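Input.
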Amino acid sequence: MHGLMMDYQLTLDRIVERANRFYPRKGITTKLPNGTFHQYTYADFYKRVKRLANVLESLGVAIGDRVGTFAFNNYQHMELYFAIPGAGAVCQQPLVKRLEFRRERGGERHDHVILLIVDAPPRIFDLLGRQLGHARRQRF
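Output.
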């Protein structure tokens, strides 16, 4: 289509590629749940996002699948946010609110999420497992 600013779609993978290409040494800082800070560069971020997208594909995540996350808002969750679409899947958020809404309405409780990535203490992990019912649980 003529007259558009770009010849390609502005998708998350393009944003990660651009950050790696133009700002590889620029820093990213996030605060961890214990109050400390994690720092690394866009080059490190790029490598980890690509590796995580490959891991998701090796776990059987296919294009269009829904992957849910339940994690603290830190660098690991940011990597998931970019890696899930990088694997061709849909990042399903906020998952817990959707589960509660469907349970109240009497509908399906898993919202067709094929993989749920949880970064939480074991008691939260077990609580989510009870919410999901029949879903297979695996700790890594």
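The radius of gyration is 17 Å.
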